[in-house]
Amino acid sequence: MDYEAWEPIYREILDDFGFSMKRDLEAAVLLSEQLISPPPLTRLEELISAKKVLVCGNGPGLSSEIADLEADGALLDRAIIAADGATSVLLRAGISPDVIVTDLDGTIEDIIDASKRGSIVVVHAHGDNIDKVREYLPRLRAVAGTCQCRPPQGLLNMGGFTDGDRSVFLAVHFRASEIALAGFEFDDPSVTPRKAKKLRWAKRLIEIALSGSL
Questions:
Q1: Quick check: 60 and 185 in contact, CB under 8 A?
Q2: What sections of the chain are H helices per DSSP?
Q3: Per-residue model confidence (pLDDT) at position 58
Q4: Is 191 left (phi over 0), alpha (psi -120 to 50) or beta?
Q5: What residues are paired with 124 via a beta bridge?
Q6: Contact indicator for 173, 158 with CB cutoff of 8 Å
Q7: The pTM is what?
Q8: Strand 155-156, strand 78-83: pairing
């Protein structure tokens, strides 16, 4: 991802939500400093590059969609990327995701459990999760770090804002041969207005990621 191409979208997100670029950078630097070992980028590439990928969002329909895909045998040849809280749904279905993309806002014990089972955890740093990065990063195993600001050494910015659309950008970045989505409901009427705005952004960014325009 060329940061200069991403930055205008990032600045639009900052303005829309009132976020602080300074805080995002502070979080990114903290994450880069706390990463103990080199990020497992080779493993990520092996899992995703030229492979079919299923990106799982945490929408209310995920459980039934996963059951249908399992019944059809459609999960057998796909790498599974879980967006944060989708991890819990997958674990309850007996599935350990290959990759978890998270800002540590989901059920953290499930994310830690999946990490112990071998899931790569792609931890995202932003201005609102600095305390969680400090607290939970030491409990995770194979970790890659991302941010939405200009990335310091050791972190990636592949594009994306929410865990769901960042998961799609991740699959695009590592050149998946096919990207399918499950558990994405962009017009969920049960969510708060703030969450609804994030879902609108997620939909827009997924369309950008899949179009290859960045």
A1: yes
A2: 3-17, 21-34, 41-48, 62-71, 86-92, 108-117, 130-136, 163-173, 193-211
A3: 95
A4: beta
A5: 146
A6: yes
A7: 0.97
A8: unpaired
- Cα-flanking dihedrals φ and ψ of residue 145, to 5°? -115, 140
CA distance 187 to 73: 28
pLDDT in tens, 52-95: 999 999 999 999 999 999 999 989 989 999 999 999 999 999 99
| Length of the chain counted residue by residue | 214
Angle, helices 193-211 vs 163-173, to 10°: value is: 10
Helices first, then strands: H and E counts in the chain: 9, 7
User: What are 157-207's pLDDT values in tens digits?
Assistant: 999 999 999 999 999 999 999 999 999 999 988 899 999 999 999 999 999
| CA distance linking residue 127 with residue 154, whole number of Å | 18
